[in-house]
Structures are given as structure tokens and as C-alpha cells.
Design goal:
The protein has 494 residues and is α+β, with helices and mostly antiparallel strands. It is 14% helix and 31% strand. A hairpin with a 2-residue loop joins strand 4 and strand 5. The two termini are 32 Å apart.
């Protein structure tokens, strides 16, 4: 049940998963709502449209000829939380030991129908344990039982403490096999060394009744387009398509950063999809970075940052080619600003050389009012080191990132992933896709297709008066030289 944001809130937000019918729309929005405003404001949620996928799209994409493994030579020197009711294995509640050993199946019980078949969901240690949902859930009273395995058929399984009652879970993405896949996850409201990686195939789908064609809701639903501009949508199918695009973009960004290879030590796969073919999951940017430089810190400082960057620059990068992009969360941005302030405390007062520190403003409190302030967003260190701090909303995602930091926010927001991206001619990090094979999408519809506006379809693909929209893509990431990347991780996340 939603928590009221203030005493002036009349209704709480509602969530559901799966096919949306007229009943849902009328139940949630009302057939003829009497509202003071025609706009439903999206409260306390980020759209996530500006993410790693869109950032890497600004650099050239690396295209490959097929979905086979791609290799490169390295010269040495990539919502809501639902509380778990309980975990079961072999009919008993998991209270000790490990569950899902050697790829064994077990069950996760939730009191909401929030996840769907094919989804990979994660708990608190979201990069150590990824749970793959094997089928649609079974209902047991007011609970829903999900049959799951650990992605990659982990031999050690997951400790009981990580699947204890009350642990929070969220959806990550929906990996499927790249051969004859038949179902997708639903939406919810680093001498030369040869390196190898592979693409991850993701697919999503959503089904709607045919009679939603042109159906208008009694109020406007506010969203953000890919440029971050507000859109007001009063036709339900517009909202469905917008929400689909947002969720699909978010899944692609998470694949690029967070995906972990499910190929075992013998080069085999232990995850199979609905068609019986293997589900292959490539390595995201994070996993590729792990083979290189990782630093655990308790106290962040510019001295620490400089020391790390000198280690990966010395005798490797030219003085004029030492620009590093640091992706972090809002708390990390603030922490970096304060660290630069501490480092620059001995400098001449900024107000002497920067009159913009104090600016005149208008205020009802005084006729001679001023505003003051500044923020460091870049750092120029000796020996050509240039650090640019960039905000990434995925680090502040309070749904996916459950561990909180004592100084406020989530611990992930204090993580710094330092990426040497190179230049537009020779990027060190790129998105990888198949040549001539961009995002695929299609419809299976009956008489009417609310997605396209089509009606009286003479070539029906289903006898049911409904339409299912599905999107499918194969993508991956390549970090050509992981030795030029660094992760600074707060000790809380280890």
C-alpha cells in the first residue's frame, strides 16, 4: 500500500503488472474523475531515460557481423522494491545453509504480483546473486510463488541470509536465448592478450485488449520523452508505449553496465530458455573492469583519486591524453566537491578572482539581496590529469540499490567508476551491436491493434481480440583496455 506524501494527498499510487484492461484504467483513474488538475504528477520517481545507453550512443557503436563471440587484442603493460515473504527449497523454508546450489531450483515467495516470467531479479547484493524466474508464479492465498534459479548455475548457491524474510528485491532485465526465443519479460508499472565477450539478448512484451483502441483516460498521464521534455498523454496507448520505451531503455542500460557472463569455467552454459536453447549473457562494463583496478575506501579524498589515476597513466598515456570520466551518484558528486574544496583550502579566496561567487538576486526579505555559491565539477591535477565528474541516475536508484549509507542516500551513490573513454576516433569503451540489426519490434494482433491503430485486420495472427507488442535486441559492451579504468567502492558495498 502506498504511503501518503502529505496530509493533502487524497489517493495513493497503485501498481499492477501484466495485461491492462479497461477495468484497470477505470479503477485507477476513474471513468469521469472530478480533479482540480488535469495532470497526474509523477512523484518522487526518476524516469531513467538519460542513462548509460544514451551516453554510449554519443560515441561510435562497434558493429559486429553476427551474434558469435567478439574478440579484441589487449596490449598489456553496465521501479519498486518488493519484500520477500520467504524462500523455500524442497518444500521447506530456507533458514540456514545455501539455496540453489549447483543450479538447483528453489522458490521465492512475495505478496505481490510484481515480477514476470523470464525476468532476472536481484536482492541487496545485486551483482553477486541474480535470480532467474523460470515460469509464471503460482498463487497461494494472497502470496505469489516464483520458481527461480541462480543465473549461471552457481555451485555455491546463495546464503540463507540473502533470502531471509523482509529482504527487498527488484527487477534487473529479461535475458532470453538468441535462437527461436518465444517469450520476453513483461513491463511493470580488460605481449597481446585476446579478450572475448558476447552479446546479451533481451526481449520484452506487453499485451492489451483490442477494445483499448483510442481509449482515453479521464486525466493526463505525465511522462518524459528521451530528451527529458515533459509530455502530457491522455490516450492510454500513448502511455503504454511511453512506459514500454522507458523500461526497455532501462534494461539496455543495465545490461551494458551490470550484466555478468553466465558461461562457466568450462565454457558451457547452464541457463536455457523457453525454446530449450541456451540463454547467453555477456559481461557488462562493471565485470570487465573487475579484472583491473578496484579500490575499497572509507574516506574519499582528492589525494586518493590522484594516486590511483597516476598509477594507470604513468608510462601508458600521453600527457595530452589523460582525460577521465567519473560516473557517480548525486552523493558522490557532492562528496567530490567537498574533497576539492578541502584540497584547495590554501588557495587565494575564490571571491577575489571569481566575482560570480556572489550575485545580486531578488527577494522579499531585503531590497539589497545576494546569492552565493559555486560547485566543482572537474579537477585538473598535475601531469595532465583531467577528471570530469558525471552524474548517473542508476547510482541513485533506490529500488535497485538497497544498502543505505550512514551519511544519507544509498551506498551505491558514493561509488566512483572511472572510465578512460579515449576519444571519438578510438573509444576505449563502446556499445556493441550486430551490423544492420538494430532494435527489432513487432505485433501479434487480432481484429484490432491499439498499438498501430489498425482495425479489421485481414491477416490476423491471433484469434483473440488483442494485440501483443514485443521488442528484441542483442547488445553488449566492450572495454578495450580495462587497465585504464578504476572502481572506487565504499566499504559498505563489499
Amino acid at each position: 500500500m502506498s504511503v501518503k506524501q502529505s496530509k493533502f494527498q487524497v489517493t495513493g499510487g497503485k501498481q499492477w503488472a501484466g495485461m491492462t484492461t479497461k477495468f484497470h484504467i477505470q479503477k485507477v483513474f476513474g471513468a469521469q474523475p472530478q480533479l482540480l488538475s488535469s495532470v497526474v504528477h509523477r512523484m518522487l520517481s526518476a524516469s531513467g531515460v538519460k542513462n548509460l545507453d544514451t551516453t554510449l550512443s554519443n560515441l561510435p557503436t562497434k558493429f559486429v557481423d553476427s551474434d558469435d563471440d567478439f574478440t579484441w587484442k589487449l596490449v598489456g603493460a553496465s521501479e519498486r522494491n518488493i519484500a520477500l515473504v520467504e524462500a523455500r527449497e524442497n518444500g521447506s523454508v530456507v533458514t540456514s545453509g545455501n539455496a540453489g546450489v549447483s543450479g538447483g531450483e528453489f522458490e521465492l515467495v512475495f505478496n505481490e504480483l510484481h515480477f514476470s516470467d523470464v525476468n532476472v531479479i536481484v536482492g541487496e547484493k545485486n551483482e553477486l546473486y541474480q535470480f532467474r524466474i523460470m515460469d509464471d508464479p503460482e498463487q497461494e492465498g494472497t502470496n505469489y510463488i516464483y520458481r527461480v534459479t541462480l543465473m549461471g548455475a552457481s555451485e555455491s548457491g546463495v546464503p540463507a541470509a540473502e533470502v531471509a524474510a523482509g529482504k527487498r528485491f527488484s527487477k534487473d532485465f529479461s535475458p532470453v536465448e538468441d535462437t527461436l526465443s518465444i517469450k520476453g519479460g513483461d513491463i511493470t508499472f580488460s605481449t597481446p592478450i585476446e579478450m572475448r565477450n558476447e552479446l546479451t539478448t533481451i526481449r520484452m512484451e506487453h499485451k492489451v485488449p483490442g477494445n483499448l483502441l483510442g481509449y482515453r483516460v479521464g486525466t493526463q498521464v505525465v511522462g518524459l520523452d528521451p530528451s527529458g521534455n515533459k509530455k502530457e498523454l491522455n490516450v492510454w496507448m500513448q502511455h503504454v508505449e511511453w512506459k514500454f520505451d522507458i523500461d526497455f531503455s532501462r534494461e539496455k542500460a543495465r545490461v551494458l553496465m551490470f550484466a555478468r557472463s553466465n558461461r562457466d569455467a568450462n565454457g558451457q552454459y547452464n541457463d536455457f530458455g523457453k525454446s530449450g536453447h541456451v540463454v547467453r549473457q555477456g559481461s557488462g562494463i562493471r565485470e570487465q573492469m573487475e579484472v583491473s583496478n578496484t579500490t575499497i575506501y572509507n574516506e574519499f579524498s582528492i589525494t586518493l583519486l590522484e594516486s590511483i589515476l597516476y598509477d594507470i597513466s604513468e608510462a601508458k598515456l600521453d600527457m595530452n591524453d589523460r582525460t577521465f570520466l567519473v560516473r557517480t551518484g548525486e552523493r558522490g558528486i557532492i562528496q567530490a566537491h567537498k574533497a576539492i574544496m578541502a584540497e584547495a583550502s590554501g588557495w587565494q579566496s575564490l571571491t577575489d578572482s571569481n566575482p560570480e561567487t556572489y550575485q545580486r538576486t531578488s527577494s522579499i526579505f531585503h531590497s539589497n539581496s545576494f546569492k552565493a555559491g559555486f560547485q566543482f565539477t572537474e579537477w585538473l591535477a598535475p601531469n595532465g590529469i583531467h577528471v570530469i565528474f558525471e552524474l548517473d541516475s542508476m547510482y541513485d536508484d533506490k529500488v535497485r540499490n538497497k544498502i543505505e549509507h550512514p551519511q544519507g542516500g544509498v551506498a551505491e551513490s558514493y561509488r566512483y567508476d572511472i572510465l578512460y573513454v579515449g576519444n571519438s576516433d578510438e573509444p576505449n569503451i563502446q556499445k556493441v551491436m550486430i551490423k544492420g540489426d538494430a532494435d527489432l519490434h513487432g505485433y501479434a494482433s487480432g481484429f484490432r491493434n491499439p498499438f498501430t491503430g489498425g482495425i479489421n485486420n485481414m491477416n490476423m495472427s491471433t484469434m483473440e481480440d488483442s494485440a501483443t507488442y514485443t521488442r528484441y535486441t542483442q547488445l553488449g559492451a566492450v572495454v578495450f583496455d580495462p587497465s585504464k579504468t578504476v572502481s572506487l567502492i565504499p566499504s559498505l558495498l563489499v
